[in-house]
Amino acid sequence: MTSAKPPDRTKEQKRRRRERIIIILSLALIVLLTYLESHFFQFGSELPMGSNVIIFALMNINVILLLLLLYLVTRNVVKLIFERKRNIFGHRLRTKLVITFITLSLLPTIILFGLATQFISTSMEYWFNIQVEQSLKKSLEVAQTFYQKAINSGFIVNNQLSELISRHGMLNKGKQKQLVELMQEARRAHNLNKIAVYSTKLQPLIQYPQTESPPILLDQPVRDVMQQVVKKREPINHIAPTSAGDVVWTVSPLFASTNPQKLSGLLIVGQLLPKDLLASMAEITTGFENYQQMKMLKKPIKISNLIMLSIVTLLILFCASWFGFYLAKSITVPIQELAEGTRRIALGDLDVHVDRDSDDEIGTLVNSFNRMALDLLASKTELEEANLELKLTSEEIERRRRYMEIVLRNVAAGVVSVDAEGHIRTINKSAESIFRLKAEDVLHRHYSEVLQTNHLEIAGKFIEMHQITKHPTMQRQVRSLVGNRLMTLLVTVSILHDEERQYLGIVVVFDDLTELEKAQRMAAWREVARRIAHEIKNPLTPIQLSAQRLRRKYLQKFTGDGKVFDECTRTIINQVDELKVLVNEFSNFARMPTANPSPNDLVDIVQETISLFRESHPSASFDFEQHSPLPLLDLDREQMKRVMINLLDNAVSAVDGNGEIQVNISFDEILKIARIEVSDNGPGIPAKDKIGMFEPYYSTKDKGTGLGLAIVSNIIADHQGFIRVRDNKPRGTTIVIELPGGSRTGAEPLTKLG
């Protein structure tokens, strides 16, 4: 269920982004204006920086608020104008309500603004009149005069006492009592807190009183002043702050009565200014300074207050316009949502819900609309669920069909299905590859139109087997010629019935056992060759040695029949040699070494082999042609040389030693395959002999062992290559070898016939 409100996330995001930008710009503007006003206003240097920043920051905040409210009010007015121009639903009602509320609030707001402005002006003049300023100024002057008088009084008393002491020589022996009485009298008369006489070495001679409360100590700064008096011989004042208040110290030099130039001591007078007195003086000073600061800020404060009044005025106008918009929105928005919901229902979208924002009559109308939409949606949902079930069922059937097609397409065995009428319905890629067919050529055709004669005979045998056994599944291994290839297939035929045992057709599965059977035959032939080589090789040597011994011992003794004896023994020796050659061939075939490939130049191997045959068969013509450059290939050099020797030897035999033999080498850059073609112009090979020519003991030569091409096929297979035979045009035979351009291991070699 979706709401009928048209969601517009993009507009909302833009609005929030715009508000964030306004806030950031406002803060930056406040900081900038505060900095400029505090540094460039005429009275900015006379005020503390803290006061400048606070006052002008407040002013700028007020200005920004004023501008912000002015923007909001202007925005509402502009919004009304645009809604009217665009004829947006409810614009007339909103305009009337906004104008009404602004009119009702504008008159009292203007009156209040005028009265408040007059009140602020009167108050500011009252606060900053000349009488208040004069009173504060006089109080400050009185405090400063008292403080200075206290300092001067100590200085005068000290000078008078030092002059009396120096003139009457009171530092001399015998006059100390007179000195003490003078010091006591001066302390009582002038209310001194401390009076003392020190030597020029700053050692105390007489001080009065001995103890005082609070204690007044001569700390290090006072002693530094005493050192200066000793040097300069002039009286010095020093004010030392303490926890009890400020102490005014006056230090004067004392001279000898007999020699006015001789310094004989120091007179120290200390007078305490109480802490409460100092606090009162500081309070008067602070009050006057604050008054001066406030007076300097009179105009900014007045402007700030006027701005605040303007903010309040604009706030009232904004609230009036906003309330007008809000009231109009509470009426027009539900009606607009109902209209939008009705339009969507008319277009077929029944998933509509209008939010209820109130409990009044409009809310009742919204509830009725929502109930109607729910009823329509429920009816539509029931229909859609029924359609969905049908669709899901259809999709499940289609999914299963596609799954079966994928399985059949990727299974290694060939699979063909035939319906009850005998028409081919499915054939997978493996079946196409086995029978060299294309699916589009055989689908929906009767199987009898597609199968060859020999294949129809095999099908007839399966039909007879089913009629006899009645088994639903039959399996049989057959050998059949497919094109030019003799293939061994494991054929499995399954009869299909439905739940009611109605005949639906058959499924035939073909497993290609050709390569497996070939590998088994090759292994069996190797075992036979090994046994033959073992059983025959042992007696051959004794037979040959015995025949040779008979010739040496008895050939000269025969007179009449010597020729027969010679021929018989020679025949035995020659045949034994031929048997040894045959046994060696068997032994080599049975003990084929594993290929040990390494990077080699195939062209170099071929040319080296051709050179040997050119020398040994000068009557034959050997032509070599390289069609493209070859990279280094992973080859076993000795085994590949053996391949070329066997192929060239067969070619020489085919042309009876005086024909033409052509060797071509090329490299396919796309497939990365090196190709060798050995062609002769001999009589060629019959089609029936091409089927088994790469199997052991196949030979068309009178003295051949039948192992040469079998060995070649094994070597090429060990190199993960392919070998096939085809007719050479216009006559003769061509052996084609294809080798991979890179290292390939682990694949079963293939032999092709073409």
Number of strands: 20
Question: From the alpha-carbon coordinates, what is the Rg to the nearest angstrom?
Answer: 64 Å
C-alpha end-to-end distance: 70 Å
Please indicate the percent range of residues in DSSP E strands (runs of 2 or more).
15-25%
Notable traits:
single chain; alpha+beta; 6-stranded mixed β-sheet; Beta-Lactamase; 19 helices; 754 residues; 5-stranded antiparallel β-sheet; disordered C terminus
Describe the structure.
With 754 residues, the protein is α+β, with helices and mostly antiparallel strands. It has 6 domains: 172 residues, no CATH class; 128 residues, Beta-Lactamase, CATH 3.30.450.20; 40 residues; 102 residues, 2-Layer Sandwich (Beta-Lactamase); 70 residues; 157 residues, Heat Shock Protein 90. 59% of the residues lie in helices and 17% in strands. The protein contains 19 helices and 20 strands. Strands 14-16-17-19-18-20 form a 6-stranded mixed sheet, covered by helices on one side. Strands 3-2-6-5-4 form a 5-stranded antiparallel sheet, with helices on both faces. A hairpin with a 2-residue loop joins strand 10 and strand 11. Helix 1 runs antiparallel to helix 2, helix 3 packs antiparallel against helix 8 and helix 16 packs across helix 17. The longest helix is centred in the middle third of the chain and has 50 residues. The protein is elongated. The protein starts with a strand and ends with a strand. The C terminus is likely disordered.
